[in-house]
């Protein structure tokens, strides 16, 4: 459950460009590197929403209104469970700024200014556990991962492993490829060593299989 909000001066985008930008921001945030199973990524996209705002007034810290005819400035705010915030910030700020720069280039404006001047501010906001909800009830970060992955566990279990690099395994919860040599997020169950991309996937797997985690 991720919300991307983009604030832009009124008139910056026409309806077609707004739709294209919304899809581009979602694709940029989801990424393709070290991807989870395709089905899980589809579930994550389904829980990701983009809102594009055009404020009636926009005043910068130097007390001057944003120039309505100059190159537009932007504020991007990404809201996600607090447990995901630190890891997400590491790539979201760069990826979303570059996605916005691509839109600037399409509009005939200089995309480089967003990487050279403070014209695109990005805020990654962590929402406290229990403060997000679906189905009329609070949903914690573990609940959200369960929602996104549980329907696809059978497909994840069938992911081919013959071509995996030596020493790597597939995370049985989300389908990401994990290098066992570079992580301590592992569990041994019935003689099989499982690796996990993060502690929450390991927690879910441990709870489902009644396996204690030594911390």
Q: In words, what does this structure look like?
A:
- The protein has 215 residues and is an alpha/beta fold.
- It has 2 domains: 2-134, Macrophage Migration Inhibitory Factor, CATH 3.30.429; 160-215, no CATH class.
- It has 7 helices and 10 strands.
- It has helices at 15-30, 38-46, 82-106, 113-116, 141-149, 153-157, 199-209; strands at residues 2-7, 48-53, 74-81, 120-127, 133-134, 137-138, 168-170, 177-179, 186-189, 192-195.
- The strands form 4 sheets. A 4-stranded mixed beta sheet has the order 2-1-3-4. A two-stranded antiparallel ribbon has the order 5-6. It has a two-stranded antiparallel sheet with strand order 7-8.
- Helix 1 (15-30) crosses helix 3 (82-106).
- The two termini are 28 Å apart.
List the helices and strands and how they pair.
Layout: E1 2-7, H1 15-30, H2 38-46, E2 48-53, E3 74-81, H3 82-106, H4 113-116, E4 120-127, E5 133-134, E6 137-138, H5 141-149, H6 153-157, E7 168-170, E8 177-179, E9 186-189, E10 192-195, H7 199-209
Parallel strand pairs: 1-2, 3-4
Antiparallel strand pairs: 1-3, 5-6, 7-8, 9-10
Helix pairs in contact: 1-3, 5-7
């Amino acid at each position: 459950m991720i919300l991307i909000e983009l604030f832009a001066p009124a008139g910056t985008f026409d309806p077609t460009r707004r739709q294209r930008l919304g899809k581009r921001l979602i694709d940029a945030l989801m990424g393709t590197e070290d991807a989870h199973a395709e089905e899980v990524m589809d579930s994550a996209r389904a829980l990701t929403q983009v809102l594009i705002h055009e404020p009636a007034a926009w005043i910068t810290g130097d007390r001057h209104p944003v120039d309505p005819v100059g190159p537009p400035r932007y504020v991007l705010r990404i809201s996600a469970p607090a447990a995901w915030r630190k890891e997400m910030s590491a790539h979201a700020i760069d990826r979303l700024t570059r996605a916005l720069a691509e839109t600037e280039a399409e509009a005939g404006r200089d995309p480089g200014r967003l990487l050279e001047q403070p014209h695109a501010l990005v805020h990654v906001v962590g929402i406290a556990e229990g403060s997000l909800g679906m189905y009329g009830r609070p949903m914690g970060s573990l609940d959200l991962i369960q929602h996104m992955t549980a329907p696809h566990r059978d497909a994840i279990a069938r992911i081919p492993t013959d071509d995996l690099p030596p020493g790597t395994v597939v995370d049985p919860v989300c389908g990401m490829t994990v290098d066992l040599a570079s992580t301590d997020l592992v569990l041994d169950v019935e003689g099989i060593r499982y690796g996990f991309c993060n502690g929450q996937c390991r927690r879910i797997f441990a709870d489902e299989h009644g396996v204690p985690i030594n911390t």
